[in-house]
Design goal:
The termini are far apart. Strands 2-1-3 form a three-stranded mixed beta sheet. The chain has a single domain, classed as Helix Hairpins. The chain has helices spanning about 1-15, 20-35, 35-45, 75-80; strands spanning about 55-60, 60-65, 95-100. The protein has about 120 residues and is an alpha+beta fold.
Length: about 120
């Protein structure tokens, strides 16, 4: 959902050690654009020292919350894939955002050369 993407951008900006005037203005604008209930839950998590938004990595058989490293039940994962509603981790209560797909690295398979023995086998 677009709101969660805005929350992720807000989180990235708020976690910067030093903020420029442009970044402070963007934070203010984001806080005005995000619905109050979402922002309230996000702020409660941040006050407790937890990030409010966690990325979800695709793993065989589902998704993995990067906030708590727990596998997601199928319900929240399907909600996240369909992008029909706000998805939250049932374990750590963070809002979930699907991580961008990473390109797999090309496999570097080496073929072993067979050693020939003196007997010719």
């Amino acid at each position: 959902m677009k709101e969660i993407e805005l929350l992720k951008e807000l989180q990235d900006l708020e976690l910067l050690a030093r903020k420029t005037a442009d970044q402070k203005a963007r934070i203010k604008a984001l806080r005005e654009d995000i619905p109050a209930p979402l922002l309230g839950h996000y702020d409660r998590l941040m006050k407790r020292g937890k990030k409010g938004v966690a990325l979800v990595r695709r793993v065989p058989g589902g998704g993995l919350c990067t906030g708590c490293r727990m596998r997601l039940p199928s319900g929240p994962f399907v909600t996240l894939l369909r992008d029909t509603d706000v998805a939250m981790c049932e374990n750590c209560s963070r809002y979930l955002l699907l991580a961008p797909e990473e390109e797999p690295e090309p496999s570097k398979k080496r073929r072993r050369a067979r050693k020939k023995t003196a007997s010719g086998e």
